[in-house]
Amino acid sequence: MRQQSAFIPTMREVPADAEAISHQWLVKGGFIRQLSAGVYSFLPLGRRVLRNAERIVREEMERTGAQEVLLPALQPAELWRESGRYEVYGPELVRLRDRGEREFVLGPTHEEVVTALVGQEIGTYRKLPVTLFQIQTKFRDERRPRFGLLRCREFVMKDAYSFAADWESLDAAYRAMYAAYGRIFARCGIRYLAVEADPGAIGGEGGTHEFMAIAESGEDDVVTCSRCDYAANLEKAAGRTPAARHAGEEAADIPAPERFHTPGLRSIDDLASGLGLREDELIKTLIYAADGKHVAVLIRGDRTVNETKVKNALGVLDLELADSAAVSAITGAATGFAGPVGLSIPLLADDEVAAMRQGVAGANETDYHLRHVVPGRDFPLASTGDFRNAAEGEACPNCADGELRVIRGIEIGHVFKLGTKYSEKLGAAFADAGGELRPVIMGCYGIGVTRLLSAAIEQHHDEHGMVWPAGLAPFHVHIVPVSDKDAAQTEAANRLYGELRAEGVETLLDDRGERFGVKLKDADLIGIPIRIVVGKGIAEGEVEWKERGGGGPAERMALADVPAAVKRWLRENGLGQA
Question: Contact, 458 vs 213, CB < 8 A?
Answer without folding.
Answer: yes
